Amino acid sequence: MKFQAGILEEWTESFFRAAGIEPGMKVLDLGCGMGDVSLLAAKLVGPTGSVVGIDRDEVIVKKARERVCCEGHSTNIEVICSDVLEFDAPSRFDAVVGR
User: Fold this and answer.
1) DSSP letter string, 70-84
2) Are 44 and 63 in contact (CB under 8 A)?
3) pLDDT band, residue 73 (cuts 50/70/90)
4) pLDDT at 71
5) Looking at the domain 2-97, which fold is it?
6) How does 39-74 read in b/e, with b if 16+ C-beta sit within 10 Å?
7) Distance from C-alpha of 56 to C-alpha of 14, rounded to nearest angstrom
8) N or C: which end of the chain has fewer CB within 10 A?
């Protein structure tokens, strides 16, 4: 997965910037997996923004949480274990992403 993320990161970042993702926004990452897209979104929204990543696989969510913490984003990324259809958003989001 990290290999795929490395290949797609530049393109994905350009797409997100063109879509208007910027500092201070609240972003929801659907099917976040190991957190590659969540981490990229967090970089774009900065410390004044936030990202919520959701995935239905508890094992992957645990690993994504560990990764987020290790990469220093535990203050602006939250990873939640939930099915997309059952997710009850804690707040409104400025953008919804997924890859």
Assistant:
1) HTT-TTTEEEEE--G
2) no
3) confident
4) 86
5) Rossmann fold (3.40.50)
6) bbbbbbbeeebbbbbbbeeeebbebbbebbeeeebe
7) 27
8) N
- Give the distance, in angstroms, between the CA of residue 93 and the centroid of all CA atoms in the same chain: 12
Does the pTM surpass 0.85? The reply is yes
- Both tokens assigned to 50: 């936030």
Domain ranges of the chain: 2-97
Q: Which two tokens stand for residue 20?
A: 């208007």
Cα distances (angstroms) measured from residue 86 to each of 4, 28, 54, 63: 28, 14, 11, 21
Q: Which of 66, 20, 23 is nearest to 44 (CA)?
A: 23
The tokens for 23 are 């500092």
C-alpha to C-alpha distance for 47 and 43, rounded to whole angstroms: 8
